[in-house]
Design goal:
4-stranded antiparallel sheet, 160 residues, alpha+beta, 8 strands, 1 helix
């Protein structure tokens, strides 16, 4: 009888813990009914969608007009953006793909921990900024590092 009660209590404890984990996952899940955003952008803007710029001291009163700058531009693909980076005379371009949450993507740049860094991210469906990529300068070298991953999964159920 004691063994039966012990196994029953253990089974109850395990089942309660699984429900708690499922509730935590569902709080960050967004349900999308049907895709409504086109994958192709008809007329991408030539103006930057987001910018960040900080002057870089050259020791001569900024005669060289050096700066650390990040500009994000739209491309012909709706969820893809071109990132132009400049540090002193170094220039680089990268492509960033924003996850398709079935809303028009809104990219933004926030300052990083030091003046020569910034965080590229996007706003989710609730308008919350999501960190995605860090752009920084370390030892006079540009660093472009993905700091978070986001996934979109598509499920379908047959209609009877």
């Amino acid at each position: 009888m004691r063994v039966f009660l012990f196994l029953s209590a253990l089974l109850l404890l395990i089942s309660c813990q699984n429900q708690t984990k499922d509730a935590a996952v569902k709080s960050d899940t967004v349900v999308v009914k049907q895709d409504t955003i086109s994958e192709i952008r008809i007329s991408p803007s030539s103006k930057p969608a987001a910018t960040y710029s900080v002057p870089v001291d050259d020791g001569m009163g900024n005669m060289n007009n050096w700066k650390f700058a990040v500009n994000i531009y739209e491309t012909s693909k709706t969820f893809e953006y071109k990132v132009n980076i400049q540090y002193k005379e170094i220039r680089s371009s990268e492509i960033v793909q924003i996850p398709n949450f079935n809303i028009l993507p809104v990219v933004a740049i926030q300052p990083g921990k030091n003046p020569m860094s910034c965080i590229i991210g996007f706003n989710d469906a609730k308008g919350t900024f999501k960190d995605y990529v860090q752009v920084s300068v370390s030892n006079d070298q540009l660093k472009f590092k993905k700091i978070n991953n986001y996934k979109v999964r598509k499920y379908s159920t047959p209609v009877n």
